[in-house]
Amino acid sequence: MLVSLAVAVAGLAMAGPASAATTEYQAESATLSQANVATNHTGYTGSGFVDYVNTPGGYIQWTVTASAAGSATITFRYSNGTTANRPMNVAVNGTVVSSGKAFNPTTNWDTWTTTSVTANLNAGSNTIRATATGSEGGPNVDKIDVATGGGGGTVTADQLLAKVTSCSQISSGKYKTDEDVSTATVPVCGKTGAVFWKADMDIDCDGVRTTQCNENTDCCFQADTACHTSGDSPLNAAGLPYVVVPSTSSIWKYTSVGIGCGSVVAVIYNGKIEYAVVGDTGPTQIIGEASYKTASDLGIDPDPSTGGTDSGVTYIVFTGSGTKVSTIENHSQAVTLGNQLAQQFLSSN
Predict the structure, then answer these.
(1) C-alpha distances in angstroms, 288 versus 129, 134, 208, 234, 314?
(2) Which of 141, 165, 271, 283 has its CA 20 to 30 A from that of 199?
(3) End residue of a domain, out of 127, 148, 169
(4) How far apart are CA 347 and CA 16, in angstroms?
(5) pLDDT reported for residue 121
(6) Is residue 155 within 8 Å of 343, Cβ to Cβ?
(7) What is the DSSP-derived secondary structure letter of residue 256?
(8) Quick one: which of 330, 268, 260, 262 has its CA closest to 297?
(9) For residue 30, which of 138, 160, 186, 150 has the smallest C-alpha distance?
């Protein structure tokens, strides 16, 4: 969604803790009990996924390595094509860290999403076991991603969400989440070092033409974005996590708090954090939109025609000096800076 926005970005602040390191562990490579490797549904990564037997007690157990002791975020990618939750107990090194963890329905077995738990890992080798507790067994599990912290530890989704439970409204009015919604219900709220809003996620597929984003996949495709790369090209919605902010209006002027191209955003959904950047602008009265890649990384259907989610997304945009990346198309910069800013945000609020 293209509306004029200044392209200049500020320098990257590199001081502070290192970014989180994330390692992927495929389910089909783990130790299995009353569970089998399968390939009869689409959308999995690796060479397959794990299908639990329909009985309690089946488990998947991964062996993971941490370079240092500390907190880690364990993110499960799963599908559940039934209409009921398939809970599991998640244990780390033999101790249950999440009892009856919910693995809620995902519409069908070809639709995947993520859910996360936080636990402490030992330096070196650790075991992570997910044990089905219900009579129908567990969900289908594709993999886990284990994010371990840098020098300052890993910020979790729950920690950030605990800081945005109440709203000190800074916008003059409220936004709608979609054009066909009659009531504007979403305010922009202020915190120390950030602003935030809680909304839906519509899919922005503008910018570089790709297999995922083009005139055939998106009825409203535009071959440009408000923000450009360091080489003055449109952004790639299918390859870069970015967020769309509402264009300046009487409701709110995002530049009034220093937000612009390359501002780092923590996008939170279903227990997972995606560090993205401000990359495009949208309608003046609608809020809640992000790139194809942002949605995909968070386990949200990224299809520009049928995807997105109606609720449950929190957007925290960091404000102040040193909150913009120097190279907007470099996602690793957003992750590094985002982790630092998130830790500062927790300390300041």
Answers:
(1) 36, 36, 21, 21, 9
(2) 141
(3) 148
(4) 13
(5) 81
(6) yes
(7) G
(8) 268
(9) 138
